[in-house]
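INTERNAL AUDIT FORM
Audit reference: QA-55
Scope: verify that the stored structure record matches its stored sequence.
Auditor: D.O.
Record contents follow.
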Amino acid sequence: MSIEQTRMTQSLGMRFIQLLGTKKHKDNPILMEIAFRAYLIYELYWVVSPWGIGQEEQSHNKYIDAIYQRIRESEGQAISGNWRALTRAYTLPVCLSNPEVAHAVDMTIISGFSDILLAAGCTASKSDITSALWSKFGENIHHFVSLAGEVNKIIGVGVISEDFAVLVVVPDAIFDERMMEDSYDDGDRVQGKGERKETVLCATDFGLMQRIMVEAGSGQMEKPSESIVIKPKVALASVVDV
């Protein structure tokens, strides 16, 4: 499986990819719209969340994140928040100011959109699809990538007294209305006991979690407190029947 196929599988899930190839989209393009949105959200997640942006930065991100988690566990919010803000302030500009990095992210998204069209039965070559998509939507895609980078700076550098984590739900997760929101809920879902568990088809929008260390009493370490400020949005598997 190629890198592009792996990324599409991670963002859409195998079931969704198979559905794209079996459904007729001309009269009802909702699945195509959801697929494009899910892939865009997934790729932007890797811009809005990490310490450094770019495929080659992934090992660095894991290393820095592990250090940060140890600092959060050992120090107060003021110290850990300052460390995070300073680290992001010096790692992000290197990535965000590099036009090659930005263009690589843009093209990854466009390439993923091409793969979605091919999975849905488009007969044109991938190079032709990619070229057409870039010509028509490249500027818009770049705008989204730039905005995601700005959000990364705002929550990573601009806030010290608390931490914010961007949330995105993975395909095939069990839907939990306490922590997620159904983008296509028409109000008919049955509530209460005996409710049938529904499966997430894919993500449709980000969520946001607030994390803060709160005082636990005299002489005791601060304790972590988490709360969802914005629920991540999803499309459920049942949307296929729409």
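Auditor finding: record pair retrieved intact. The first strand starts at residue 163 and ends at 167.
Action required: none
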